Every structure is written in structure tokens, then in C-alpha cells.
Amino acid sequence: MNPRVDDTPALSSRVRRFSRAERWVHRVTALLMGVCVVTAACLYVPQLAELVGRRELVVRVHEWAGLVLPVPVLAGLASRAFRADLGRLNRWGPQDRTWLRAVLRRDARPSSRPAAKFNAGQKTYAAWIAGATLVMLGTGLLMWFTHLTPLMWRTSATFVHDWLALTIGIVLAGHIGMALADPEARRGLRTGSVSREWAEREHRLWRP
Fold first, then answer.
1. What is the pLDDT, as a whole number, of residue 60?
2. Which strand (E) or helix (H) includes residue 14?
3. What φ, ψ does residue 182 adopt, rounded to 5°?
4. Is residue 163 a contact partner of residue 136, using CB atoms and an 8 Å limit?
5. Phi-psi region of 106 (alpha: psi -120 to 50; beta: other; left: phi over 0)
6. H or E element: which one contains 193?
7. 42 with 50: CB under 8 angstroms?
């Protein structure tokens, strides 16, 4: 008698985390955000302004990059995977409160920071950057179309726009720093898949 062959497929060492559409939304959004930050720095830092010159061109690039910034996200809504992940980012559960308490206690053990596909930090960042982008877009339009609004509105919009831009720069620097510290998370955004071991350690409530 032939021995019984176990034809159950072995678990893959990698699991899918992001679809191609999601990865492209992230890349294009990051590129546009980077253009906005760099051109803003060239407009407001005197040393960079002198180095780059051509202020009118820099202003136009900044304005159009900011204007089209929401487009990748809107285009991504055509993807079912992207819509599903937006739903996950907007859903909070008991594990998120536990995760935040662990951060406040500076408890870095993965076991003390339970997370599903996205942890509470990622959800907080996504919500904040989405809101900040909308505020920047609104205040930028008020500054662009100067003849449509009173002087008080334009002055207030400029104040909010400038200080929020500085805040966004700081938050983005922190976001990039955390990404640099987690090569597997970056690999997930680059290739769409992550190691099963990483997923089980960092996102143990996620069931891919």
C-alpha cells in the first residue's frame, strides 16, 4: 500500500497586505505631498529661495501639486481593496485603546500593542493627514483666488496655511522616520506582501 500523501498546501511564508492600486495611491500621494513640502520650503526659507530662484514657477508648481493632491485617493476609490482598507482605518475597537495606552506607558512589547491590519497609530495618522490635507486645500484656494474673499479671510487663511504646513512637515518627518525603522512595513508598501512572522508579531489580530 502506498503511503498516504498529505496534499494540504503549506502556509506561505508571506501574506498579501496591499493591492497594486493601494500601492500606487500611496506612491503618487507621497510624491505630490513631497512636492508640496519642498516647494513650500523654497518659498518660505530665504536661503532656499535664493538658491532656487524662479519664485513664480515654484509658486505655480506648489499650487497645482496641492490642488491635485486629493486626486489619487479619489481615483483609488475605484478599487475594492482600497475601499475596504479605508473602512478598516475608520473603525476603532478595544484593541486600539490598549495600543494607545501602551504607547503612553512607552511599552514597546508587541504583546502589549494588539493590532488588526492597522494599529491605532496608523489610524490616527491617516485621519489627521486627511483632515490636514483638506484644510490646506481650502486655505490654499482662499489664498489663490484673492478677489473672491475679504482681506480678513485671506489673512486668516494664510496664517492657518503656514502654521499647518510646518506641522505637516514635522509629522511627515516622524512618519518617514518610523517607516525607515521598519523595513518589513516598507517592503509591504513596495511589493504588496509581508512576512507571515512580521504580520503575526505586529498585527496579531489581522486575519489576511
1. 92
2. strand 14-16
3. -130, 85
4. no
5. left
6. strand 193-195
7. no
Please tell me whether residue 195 adopts helix, strand or coil conformation: strand
CA 42 to chain centre: 23
Question: What is the structure's pLDDT at 46?
Answer: 81
C-alpha to C-alpha distance for 158 and 156, rounded to whole angstroms: 5
- The DSSP secondary-structure symbol of 16 reads E
State pTM to two decimals.
Answer: 0.86
Burial class (CB in 10 A: 0-12, 13-18, 19+), 162: middle
Helices (H), 45-150: 46-52, 55-67, 71-76, 80-89, 94-104, 120-144
d(CA 206, CA 204): 5
The C-alpha cell 474673499 sits at 149
Beta bridge partners of 14: 195
CB atoms within 10 A of CB 149: 15
Q: What are phi and psi of 207, to 5 degrees?
A: -120, 85
pLDDT per residue as tens digits for the range 52-89: 878 889 899 999 999 999 999 999 999 999 999 999 99
Q: Give the per-residue pLDDT at 50.
A: 78
Within the chain, which residues score under 70 in pLDDT?
Answer: 1-11
Residue 16's CB is within 10 A of a number of other CB atoms, namely 13
Distances (CA, A) of 133 to 58, 62, 139, 177: 19, 14, 10, 20
